[in-house]
Design goal:
alpha/beta, six-stranded mixed sheet, five-stranded parallel sheet, 12 helices, binds guanosine-5'-monophosphate, binds manganese (II) ion
């Protein structure tokens, strides 16, 4: 399955590993696990990650990433967890500097890219795919730090093994990661059982700002950049509020809208199950999955809000 990818890696020296912008646990877990393996193989490998949430700072060797690509050309780009090459955390000119591209993803992909493409949307996460990939590439030499990274990716992308992308096969991969020594207690403690006070205050603000529409089927909350900034929270740390809205009983559609430091407005949407929220996101120039999708508002806030609520009303 991965012979050709292994050959490309063997023939490459300078390798950049990149996932999507606003990296989540899966983006971070899958890129760093592959990075650790490539370093062990003696490659000139780098993870590119311009920004990330401080929540992940406890992860092993996470500070070894670079912010951008500053070479004129490089042998290989390994792209993970990004169904679209325009969402990768590098600008197009750096993408174009790669001589070869390996793409690994678990989303339903409409525009695959690269010289070696492996997409499996029956897998929970890019990290689950990266595990199978690394077993092959390293001849079964996955180490503890790689396992901790991969565990982080699988645990976060499955919502702590709650979502319906969690399969028996996922759990078998997780069992193997624990056998290797993945530090699941640390990861769970830091990610699921720890919250900065400022972030908990953002949860309070988000709940406080809720507006309900369509018989409470739509829960909508907008937190302005000023409100987020006043709490001392960065753009990366201001996400993750949408799930709180979705978990409110009776909610079919949850929308969390936040102002960002660059003046843009980010919309994050979650479905209770019945409605495909990606349809709305695509209508406004974004994308995502049936249950989680988003976009950046192109209109001024009040106009954008009105259009969005109307579009959701038509779906509900
Ligand atoms: P979140 O609400 O966590 O920011 O994003 C949920 C999902 O929606 C992401 O995993 C991604 O697939 C998709 N998504 C969010 N924002 C955008 C966007 O601006 N463009 C596209 N194409 N997809 C997005
Ligand atoms: Mn993912």
């Amino acid at each position: 399955m991965f012979e050709q990818a292994k050959k490309i890696i063997e023939e490459s020296n300078t390798i950049y590993i990149v996932a999507h912008v606003n990296p989540d646990g899966d983006a971070i877990g899958s890129t760093f696990a592959i990075y650790f393996a490539l370093k062990k193989m003696g490659k000139d490998a780098h993870v590119v990650m311009p920004d990330h949430s401080t929540v992940f700072n406890f992860l092993p060797r996470i500070d070894e990433h670079v912010k951008s690509i500053d070479v004129r050309s490089y042998d290989l780009l390994i792209a993970l967890d990004s169904s679209d090459n325009t969402r990768l955390a590098i600008p197009k000119e750096d993408y174009d500097k790669a001589k070869k591209i390996i793409m690994l993803d678990h989303h339903q992909v409409t525009n695959p890219y690269g010289d070696f493409i492996h997409i499996d949307d029956t897998r929970s996460s890019a990290s689950e795919i990266a595990y199978i990939f690394l077993k092959y590439i390293t001849d079964n030499n996955i180490d503890k730090d790689m396992a901790t990274m991969l565990y982080t990716g699988i645990m976060t992308d499955t919502g702590c093994f709650n979502y319906n992308n969690t399969s028996a096969r996922t759990m078998r991969v997780v069992a193997e990661l624990l056998d290797i020594g993945a530090d699941n207690f640390l990861v769970n403690k830091k990610i699921n059982d720890t919250i900065q006070e400022s972030k908990l205050r953002l949860v309070a603000k988000t709940i406080d700002n809720i507006e309900s529409f369509y018989d409470n089927k739509l829960k909508y909350s907008y937190v302005s950049y000023e409100e987020i900034h006043a709490l001392g929270i960065s753009d990366e740390d201001a996400e993750g509020m949408t799930n709180y809205l979705r978990s409110i009983a009776g909610t079919e559609f949850a929308v969390y809208v936040r102002g960002k430091s660059d003046g843009s407005i980010k919309v994050s949407m979650r479905s209770g199950g019945r409605i495909d929220v990606s349809k709305v996101a695509i209508e406004f120039g974004g994308g995502g999955h049936p249950r989680a999708a988003g976009y950046t508002m192109q209109d001024p806030y009040e106009i954008g809000k009105e259009k969005l609520i109307k579009a959701i009303g038509e779906m509900i």
